[in-house]
Amino acid sequence: MASDNILSRLQNKRILLGITGGIAAYKCAELVRLYKKAGAEVHVVMTKSAQEFVTPLTLQALSGNPVHTSLLDPEAEAGMGHIELARWADLVVIAPATANFLANLSQGKGDDLLNTICLATKSPIALAPAMNQQMWASPATQNNISTLKTLFSSDRLNWMGPAEGEQACGDIGPGRMLEPAQITELSASFFNEGIFSGQHIVITAGPTQEAIDPVRYISNHSSGKMGYAIAQAAVDLGAKVTLISGPTNLSTPERVTRINIKSAEQLLETSLLLISTTDIFIASAAVADYRPSEIAEHKIKKVDGEDQMIIKLVKNPDIVATVAQHPERPFTVGFAAETRDVKTYAHSKLERKNLDMIVANDVSNTNIGFNSDNNAASIYWPEGQKELELMSKTQMAKEILLTVHATYSKSRSATK
Ligand code: PMT
């Protein structure tokens, strides 16, 4: 049985499963299911003969992605063509790999979609051969295998089996495809375990917009850069990441699930919906503390003779404090954006909001904080503190997460 631990390495990984035409192709439905269960993203590529054994529709339903079958399909090439697929994959797995496929690969053929992907990818390729034992033992197949071993280094081309045993044709011997659970576990072993492997990190980012009327709102200068950088770094460290984002001009970091919100109330609602599956909550969003008490149904018009207009504001919910007080509270990290007395205010927020950690930045300095690519910050938690000198937000995101990890893992082992 595969341990859950090793399978968690497949979280967020991109597996390109190439299916060639052998009877073991029917087992690929289970293989795709196991990859998905482990949190991998899967694209399936099928050769023409593979489609005689199992339908693309089945694999499309299980993988949640269109199945790729043709090299010369203009529609497919306009979407995700062979080069994009080759670049997309973290790992290419060919299961089953028939004798014919091994022959084609050893000759560097580029006459169908799967062959071209194998030629074009820089990622490791794993082969799970499946064929009659006599075909496996044949000098031609063995010669192709030797050629492949000479052509590709062992970190580029890997062998998963074959196993020995009873075959579909009644023969007994080597040539059986490994079971889907074994292939899944071997696939996981290609990846190092990130420090946040198996953890779900939810990050809030960007500004909120609090509507005044259909065309106006109250907001702030947050660009989302800090939160998006944390989201990217968290994925790189192995976490499953959900980014709850206010309106920004940034593209979603790779492999991050993004949920768009506008107001503080929507941010609270979304955070609470996710709370039971959240391990770590990082609140970098710049949330408006107040919102208009009423949103006008129509655009507010100027009134002749009145030089002033008063908008009544009411307090918004405090999202990070609500999360930190929840019975299912995750490890909760807040930010403090201050313009003076940074340390005092940050400590007071840490306590008042019941946080595990707070990242304080001085937003009076226009070279850091809001909208800049750089930041400088102090991190405080009940037992310690750390200074982060001026650096890029990308670098800072990693530093923050490493600090979070050290305290988070201590708190987890204390509660075990
Ligand atoms: O987005 P960038 O342009 O990259 O800029 C980054 C940043 C300056 C916005 C970021 O580094 C930062 O400091 N974010 C926190 C902004 C903020 O709202 O700080 P605050 O001190 O007002 O709030 C303290 C904490 O409470 C924050 O974690 C905030 O998300 C949270 N909060 C605040 C109000 C509220 N109603 N609900 C909250 O959850």
What is the CATH architecture annotation of the largest domain? 3-Layer(aba) Sandwich
CATH topology assignment of the largest domain: Rossmann fold
Distance between the termini: 25 Å
CATH homologous superfamily caption of the largest domain: CoaB-like
Round the Cα radius of gyration to an integer and report it.
27 Å
Strand order of the largest sheet: 12-11-8-13-16-17-18-19
Shape: elongated
The structural domain count equals 2
Q: What's the helix count?
A: 15
The CATH class of the largest domain turns out to be Alpha Beta
Report the sheet-strand fraction. Answer: 15-25%
- What would you call the structural class? alpha/beta
The tally of strands reads 19
**What do the pLDDT scores average to?**
94
Unreliable spans are none
Oligomer: single chain
Bound molecules: ligand PMT
Estimate percent helicity: 25-40%
How many strands, which pairing sense, and closed or not: the largest β-sheet?
8 strands, mixed
Q: What's this model, at a glance?
A:
The protein has 15 helices and 19 strands. It is 34% helix and 24% strand.
Give a description of the structure.
By secondary structure, this protein is of the alpha/beta class. It folds into two domains: 185 residues, Rossmann fold (3-Layer(aba) Sandwich), CATH 3.40.50; 196 residues, 3-Layer(aba) Sandwich (Rossmann fold). The protein is 34% helix and 24% strand. It has 15 helices and 19 strands. The strands form five sheets. It has an eight-stranded mixed beta sheet with strand order 12-11-8-13-16-17-18-19, sandwiched between helices. A five-stranded parallel beta sheet has the order 2-1-3-4-5, with helices on both faces. A two-stranded antiparallel ribbon has the order 6-7. The protein starts with a helix and ends with a helix. The protein binds ligand PMT. The site of ligand PMT has 27 residues, from helix 11, helix 13 and strand 16.
